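Entry 14: structure prediction run for Glycerate kinase. Input pasted below.
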Amino acid sequence: MSRVVVALDAFKGALDQAKACQAVAEGLQTEWPALAVDICPLADGGEGTGAVFVAEGAKARVTTVVDAYGRPREARWYQWGSIALIEASEGSPYLPQHRRPGHPRSSTSFGTGALIRTALETKEVSEVWVALGGTGSVDGGIGLLAALGARFEDVQHRMLEPKVDNWDTIQQASLPRLAKPVTALVDVLVPLLGPSGALEGFGPQKGLSLSEARAWTPSLRHFAQAVDSQALETPGAGAAGGMGFALAALGARIASGAEFVAEKVGLRERLRAADWVVTGEGRMDEQSLMGKVVAVVLAEAKRARIPAIAVAGQIPWDLSRFYESGLAWAEPITTQPIALEEAIAQTGDALRAAGARVARIMQMIAEGEKGHVQG
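Run finished. Output tokens:
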């Protein structure tokens, strides 16, 4: 019996990873009922990582925290056995411009820190993973540090509030020790400072102008040097508006999210038992090969020596780099021009149809190989 692993990332704005995988699986088995399908949702360590582990049996828990602008909200975190998974997008969620109650200068990562503190204080939890992505704060992680017990002083040893306006004034930071191992998951190893860093690279998405981002940079550098000059240089420190830096300063490990998640759900072992793998995401582009889910799946498929097929809403004309990375072929889920809103609404049906088309080709190949062997 032929076997396929379905290992997709989320189709952002339409379906989470588990639902996207399920839709493709339904399409595959509609066309090829005898095909064994192993559903293996994946994530790159950002928003939606929780859905992957819910599919693996994790339970959602709810804690009251504050959002990226200090307003109370109910936030989920997940417990998978003795592991706690925190999504920074739950504690300090990204907000579109029309929903921001103030300037990004007033944003805070305190809510994510409060979620981490809750997990660390939970008796049954022995380890904490923090998925850094989908956040709306640009405070360099100062709020997160404060929520976990950090204290900040000026040159006269006066206590300072944990906010962006005090970056320049901080002369000394007293940091707590993490009572349990913490791993921060990032999709890209963003530096804290510089053109691709937390402020200049990602600040404009959260409401900063580029000129403001550049003007803030010396203050952020001063703050980071006062807290931990070594953590300042850590790859991934700029993730989630500087939360990567804050966690590194506390001694957390920074890890590639896609590789980490794939390892924890046993992707390599599951591919060894398969004949095919189907991966995909909403849009395939050059970033897909930079530590994202598609890149990890292609690498593991190459290692397992099985064909990898990708399904996506948008596929680039030139797939040469994907072929070099192990892609066999790519199947677009839309077969005609369509408005974005309509495409999003029809994602589930489109994935099922794409799965059926993929299954037809897979079955033809399998039958051809069988006939060749018999001949």
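Notes: Residues 83 and 251 are 18 Å apart (CA to CA). Will compare against the previous run tomorrow.
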